Amino acid sequence: MAGKFTRSWSLMKASAAVLRSDKSLLLFPLLSGICTVLVAASFLVPASFIVVGHVQAGGESARELPLAAWLLMFAFYLVQYFVIVFFQVALTGAALMHLRGEQASVGAGLAVARSKLGAIFGYALIAATVGLLLRMLQERLGLIGRLVVGFVGLAWTVATFLVAPILASQEVGPVDAVKRSAELLKRSWGENLIGNAGIGVVFSLLMVLAMLLAAALLVGAAALKSVAVLVAAVVVVVLGLALLALIQASLQGIYSAALYRYADAGETSPGFDQALLQQAFSRKS
Q1: Closest CA to 156 of 137, 181, 176, 190
Q2: Tens of pLDDT, residues 78-106
Q3: pTM beyond cutoff 0.90
Q4: Separation of alpha carbons 232 and 92, rounded Å
Q5: In the chain, how long is the greatest CA-to-CA distance?
Q6: Which of 14, 95, 157, 281 is exposed most, by the fewest CB atoms within 10 A?
């Protein structure tokens, strides 16, 4: 287990080196974040009307939500997943180009995603259906049931981790992409789980530290009793937290691309130690 953590940390550092050499990869999660906020805002008005009508009709819990609410939630999940997966495919597509030594750019990554619109929509439809079913079960089951649903959701997330690089590099449909991702998971489950957990833990700690620094900055700015200083402090805090989120998302995309290249074809990416990759995966013929 200690060896897996060491290998995963080394692979994560290699991913960070790729990001340092091509900072344009940060634009993909930035565009994704902007689009998901716009999508959420567009669903806010119809959702508020449904909620108000539900309350006025005497509804008290999510179990009693009208059919229109569930349909709207499904539509929201579908559009959000489509946006998120689109930019994930664009990110991993650009990362794969970079790892293959090809000329990579934001435009090239977006072109890869645009060429896979049908498969991306199909996968978004599958993910939205799974997400809605899990949400419905959570609303209807007790605590133990919700924990079980949570584990199922986690298993789904892990099993589909390599869907984005698969869609970016192969001519497959959404169902085959999910199957292929689950198959590759059997070869890379240790690095997949521990590596992503490592990225999450590192950035969670950084986020906590950033929040503490942000609180100190805001308190100091408020003590000066200057609106301009306070506004500047808020802007710095928001931008700092957003940058951390962008870096984390970019590293996960690069990490998944590197894992996919080796797990699928045994190809070693520049900056990624071949010995580590050979130890990390049990490739099957």
Answers
A1: 181
A2: 999 999 999 999 999 999 998 888 888 99
A3: no
A4: 35
A5: 68
A6: 157
Asked if residue 11 lies in contact with residue 258, where contact means CB atoms within 8 angstroms, the answer is: yes
Contact 84, 36 (CB under 8 A): yes
The two structure tokens encoding residue 120: 């991306």
> Radius of gyration (Cα) for the chain, nearest Å?
21
The answer to whether residue 285 sits within a structural domain is no
Sign of the dihedral defined by the CA atoms of residues 38, 26, 88, 200, in that order:
negative
**Domain-located, residue 187:** yes
Q: For the chain, what is the domain count?
A: 1
| CA separation for the pair 66, 70 (Å, rounded) | 7
**220 lies in some domain:** yes
Domain span including residue 235 = 2-280
Residue pointed to by tokens 């691309």: 257
CA–CA separation, 10 and 279 (whole Å): 12
Neighbour count for residue 60 (Cβ, 10 Å) = 8
**How far apart (Å, rounded) are the C-alpha atoms in residues 230 and 222?**
6
Question: Amino acid identity, residue 228?
Answer: A
Question: pLDDT, tens digit, for every residue of 138-165?
Answer: 777 767 777 878 888 878 887 888 899 9
